[in-house]
Amino acid sequence: MSVKVEKVEKIEKNVVEMEVSVEAEKFSSAVNSAAKQLAHKVSIPGFRKGKAPRRLVEQTLGTDALYNEALDRLLGPAYAEAVVESGIDPVDRPDVDLVQIEEGKDLIFKAKVTVKPEVELGEYKGLSIEQEGVAIDDMKVEEDLQQKQEQHARLINIEEGTVEQGDTASIDFEGFVDGVAFPGGKGENYGLVIGSGTFIPGFEEQLVGAEIGQEVEVNVKFPDEYHSEDLAGKEALFKAKIHKIQRKELAPLDDEFAKDVSNFETLEELKEDIRKRLIEAEEKRVENAFRNAVVAKAVDNASVEIPEVMIDKRVEAMVHDLEHNLAYQGLNLEQYYAYTNSNEEDMRERFRPQAAESVKTELVLEAAAKAEGIQVSEDELNEELEKLGELYKQDPKALKESLAARGELDYYRQSLINDKTVKFLVEQNA
């Protein structure tokens, strides 16, 4: 073996230092390769680029240039080999110090790196956590049925009468602050559902009682946290005109309604189907709540000192996920900060407790899996990849190769181990 770990020393909590040696022959080979590479980057009289002998390249650029180029090629792979040999589990990039660098002698370097912390497991079996019962009363069924009634209601035009809560009023409006119209404060034939909370608090309520054709002056105050700093906390006057009033007409809850909104012939059949679906959803909710409670208790019972770098990385991942989700909505982080009256530093600080809990949960699950010998076999891995391939319409073999190429296969395997571990914990606490 050309790379050898001479010693591994714990120098502080969750930080180790390895002393690693690389055989002299391997280092010399790397220096010669570096000289050949650098020969292409310099012009030496009498030689075409890339053809000058090492001696002249070294005279021109200096020995340090050759050594630095060799180290760029050698240190990464040598460190990776040393990590495998030592069995440490780094969670950050190493700080590398050269101890000995001289051709004809072993290359020796020290690598100081933060490693995954040790977890002291507490009680994680027999936690005596009670699972909720599942019950759906008639009120829940009626509420679901009324939602369907609302969803399938039709809007009818009101020829006479006034605006009421729940109506859709078609309005023109224009807003003024200190008597001056402000940008974005004007609209025409806007369909506003009264009571939806779409407009500034207090706006919609002041339209209640207005008739078709009536002009209404609406006085409101913009919230102090309003996303536009120019308007935040300011008093405003809106001039609005009612053009049209539409009101929901609810169909009676009878057999005809059931036929119109479902594949059932009677209202009772529809109600039974609603009850069945509500029970299934409640069973799933209760099951998830129990699962989360078991995991949370096992995590709470464990002790571990998490390196800050692990929390930082998890916060970074959470920010990336948020940015990705915002992009789907046509937004970006700057807009998010404006809407939430925050900034990047505030957001990252808010994410830290959740990030720390997430990291601790993973560490505890890994420790429990190790303690119980929970693994995922190659057959189990391939079976899960087949399911994943089916879901995303990809060839499982190609998917596995893609995950391996991106260095994500081990992460995927670990996620499956974590899933098995959670299942084990739940079974042990059922």
Structure description:
The chain is of the alpha+beta class. It has three domains: 112 residues, Alpha-Beta Plaits, CATH 3.30.70.1050; 96 residues, Chitinase A, domain 3 (Roll); 163 residues, Trigger factor, C-terminal domain (Trigger factor, domain 2), CATH 1.10.3120. Strands 5, 6, 7, 8 and 9 form a five-stranded antiparallel β-sheet that branches. A four-stranded antiparallel β-sheet has the order 1-2-4-3. The longest helix has 35 residues.
Radius of gyration: 34 Å
Overall average pLDDT = 92
Distance between the termini: 50 Å
Q: How many separate domains make up the residues?
A: 3
CATH architecture of the largest domain: Orthogonal Bundle
Strand content: 15-25%
Quickly name the level 1 CATH class of the largest domain. Answer: Mainly Alpha
**Computed structural class:** alpha+beta
Q: What's the CATH superfamily of the largest domain, by name? A: Trigger factor, C-terminal domain
The topology string of helices and strands comes to EEHHHEEHEEEEEHHHHHHHH
- Give the CATH topology of the largest domain: Trigger factor, domain 2
Tally of contiguous helical segments = 12
Q: How would the global form be characterised?
A: extended
So what's the oligomer here? single chain
Low-confidence stretches: none
Report the biggest beta sheet as strand number plus sense, adding barrel if it closes. 5 strands, antiparallel
* Helix percentage: 40-55%
Got a strand count? 9
